[in-house]
Structure formats: C-alpha cells, structure tokens
C-alpha cells in the first residue's frame, strides 16, 4: 500500500513544476509573437533600400551626347562644353519649386570652375519658368532645358528617390575624354560646397 502513496506524492510534486514550465513556454511564445512583426518590418526595409538604391550604370562609359535648348533661348551641346578641355559637371535637379536646387548652383559654380570643371545645370521645366527662378537667385548663366526628359533618361537620372517624372538631386562628372567619371545621387535638395567637393574624385 505504501508504493501507490509514493507515486501519488511524486505526481503531486511534479504538477507545479509542469505549470511553471508551461508559463515559461507561453512567455517565450509571447515575446516571439511581439518580435516577429518587428523582424519582418526590418527585412522589408532592407529589401526596399536595396531595391531603390540608385545604380551608377554609366560609370566608365561614354557619356551620352546631347544638344539642349537653354533658359536664355540658345542651344548648348556636350561637345561644346568639353571643347575647351574642361570637364563637365552635369547637375540634374527637381527644378522649379525647389529653392535648394537653384541655391545649389552658386554654391558650387565658382569652386568647380577653379578646378577646371564647368557646372552644367539641367532642368525639365519650361524655359520661361526656369529663367524667372534663375533671376530670383541671381543666376546669370543659362540653364539647360530637358523638357522631354530624354537627356535625364539617357543619364539614368529619373526614378531616383521616388521621383518618377523628374530628377532628384544628382550629378554626373564627364571628363575631357567624354567618359563618365563619377555619378552621385543625393537624397537632400542642397549640399554644401565643402561636403560636395570632398566627394568628387580628383578635386
């Protein structure tokens, strides 16, 4: 009769331990349920960043040639810009409605010129609108007008940082040999001259 009693006592002692184990397991699953959505969000963000990371497919290749009208009613070609042996810093921006985009031009123009680089702003807005905004910022040099987006598309400047129909704030350095030497897309609409020049190779 003593053996059944021992078995019954032993069973009674294990019951609370089993309850603690169950509670611990439940807590683990609770934390997992909380962490899983956060992990999933992190994965999606990582995928999104890698998917929309701007690509620089033109680096080291021949720069697409162009002839574009300007805000002053003239026409400029890439060959003309490169004819004096200077390099060309093509600057594709959002244009009218973006004050930082216009302020960027005088911020870096003279410093680039001192290094033998001609700044070439390109915008997709109508010439009259661009000319009026240029006056507001004291910009005297003509801005190239790419209203049909053909040049912006050739230089892969569309669809960067969510702007599907116009460039964001991007640069392409074309060397005197006509090769694309450097491409950079900025998420911000203005970059200080110091920060910008620190990133351009050879300056």
Q: How is the CATH topology of the largest domain named?
A: Glutaredoxin
The DSSP helix count reads 6
| CATH homologous superfamily classification of the largest domain | Glutaredoxin
Structural class: alpha/beta
CATH architectural label of the largest domain: 3-Layer(aba) Sandwich
Mean pLDDT: 82
Q: How are the strands of the largest sheet arranged?
A: 5-4-3-6-7
Give the fraction of residues assigned to helices: 40-55%
* Gross geometry: globular
End-to-end distance, in Å?
Answer: 97 Å
Biggest β-sheet description = 5 strands, mixed
Report the sheet-strand fraction.
Answer: 15-25%
| Whole-number tally of structural domains | 2
- CATH C-level class of the largest domain is Alpha Beta
One letter per element, helices H and strands E, the order comes to HEEHEHEHEHEEH
The number of strands is 7
Task: Output the radius of gyration.
Answer: 30 Å
Poorly predicted residue ranges: 1-17, 34-53
How would you explain this protein's 3D organization?
There is one protein chain. With 203 residues, the chain is of the alpha/beta class. The protein folds into two domains: 1-53; 67-199, Glutaredoxin. It is 46% helix and 17% strand. It is built from six helices and seven strands. The protein has a five-stranded mixed beta sheet. A hairpin with a 5-residue loop joins β6 and β7. The radius of gyration is 30 Å and the shape is globular. Residues 1-17 and 34-53 have low confidence and may be disordered.
């Amino acid at each position: 009769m003593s053996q059944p009693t021992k078995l019954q006592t032993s069973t009674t002692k294990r019951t609370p331990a089993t309850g603690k184990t169950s509670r611990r397991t439940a807590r683990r699953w609770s934390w997992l349920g909380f962490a899983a959505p956060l992990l999933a969000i992190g994965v999606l963000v990582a995928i999104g960043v890698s998917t929309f990371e701007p690509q620089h497919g033109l680096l080291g290749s021949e720069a697409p040639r162009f002839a574009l009208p300007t805000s002053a009613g003239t026409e400029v070609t890439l060959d003309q810009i490169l004819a004096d042996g200077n390099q060309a810093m093509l600057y594709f921006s959002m244009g009218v409605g973006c004050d930082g985009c216009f302020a960027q031009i005088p911020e870096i123009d003279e410093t680039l010129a001192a290094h033998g680089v001609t700044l070439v702003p390109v915008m997709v807005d109508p010439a009259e609108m661009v000319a009026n905004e240029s006056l507001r910022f004291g910009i005297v040099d003509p801005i190239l007008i790419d209203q049909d987006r053909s040049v912006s598309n050739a230089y892969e400047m569309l669809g960067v940082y969510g702007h599907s129909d116009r460039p964001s704030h991007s640069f392409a350095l074309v060397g005197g040999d006509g090769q694309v030497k450097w491409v950079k897309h900025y998420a911000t609409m203005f970059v200080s001259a110091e920060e910008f020049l620190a990133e351009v190779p050879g300056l």
